[in-house]
Amino acid sequence: MKILEGLYGFIWQSASENNCNCFLIEGAKKILIDPGHRHLFQHVLRGLEGIGMTPEQIDVVLVTHGHPDHLETAGSFGPSTQWAMSRIDYDFVMKYIGPQVEFPKPAFFLQEGGLTIGNTSLQVFLTPGHSPGSVCFYWPEKKTLFTGDVVFNQSIGRTDLPGGSGKQLKESITKIAELDVEVLCPGHGDIVTGRKAVKKNFKMIQDFWFTHL
Ligand SMILES: [Zn+2]
Q: Are 193 and 1 in contact (CB under 8 A)?
């Protein structure tokens, strides 16, 4: 689905299978965020096909964190497609599930701060808590925030998985709640649109979920 000019979402709707939402930024370079599970890769391929694109046309794949339902197909695009994630989560994945994961090494590692790809400028925020090296991507030009499994519509990411921390997740959410966001694109569930709705969502999370962390 087209979310706004230059942004598409391949939203996951099956309740019986676990895969993440995948997003495509279509600028001078094509950037794909969180391609998801290998056995559910068809979902992304169909989404690309629906807008007349092939996997080989993706320039850069960005991964919010190292869980398999976001990461597994990061290296499954074209021969010239690069992919990146944070070094903290990469090392974490290699340490815990490395031998089972078969994909090429990232072309580069994501660090907190500006990231320009083609004519698209993103800000990378290090937001640990759900995983030790989770990142969120903020796209100021479109006031769009990609949160992976840090924040969802009405909910937050789990903190009981290895490397999770409720205290860190709280700090991370507090950090990104400050941003001027009109479109919140989470790793699972519905997109939240409209500045008011996004603010309300952060407030609900801070009022309700923070007491559980
Ligand atoms: Zn996750």
A: no
Name the phi and psi angles at 168, rounded to 5.
-65, -40
Q: Strand, coil or helix: what is 6?
A: coil
Q: What torsion, rounded to 10 degrees, do the Cα atoms 145, 147, 148, 152 define?
A: -120
What confidence tens digit (pLDDT) does each residue in 173-194 have? 999 999 999 999 999 999 999 9
Q: What does DSSP assign to residue 194? A: S
Nearest-angstrom CA–CA distance, 61 and 24: 9
Distance from Cα 135 to the centre of ligand 1, integer Å: 11
**In b/e form, how buried is each residue of 88-104, taking b as 16+ CB within 10 angstroms?**
bbbebbeeeeeeebeee
Six-digit token string for 72? 């597994």
Cα 113 to Cα 133: distance, rounded to the nearest angstrom: 14
Q: How many Å lie between the centroid of ligand 1 and the Cα of residue 19?
A: 10
Taking the centre of ligand 1 as the mean of its atom positions, its distance from the CA of residue 58, in whole angstroms, is: 23
**What's the rounded mean pLDDT across residues 27-31?**
97
Six-digit token string for 86: 């944070």
**CA 103 to CA 149: how far, in whole Å?**
22
* Cα 35 to Cα 50: distance, rounded to the nearest angstrom: 16
Distance CA 151, CA 158 (A): 10
pLDDT of residue 96: 81
Q: How many angstroms is it from 149 CA to the middle of ligand 1?
A: 5
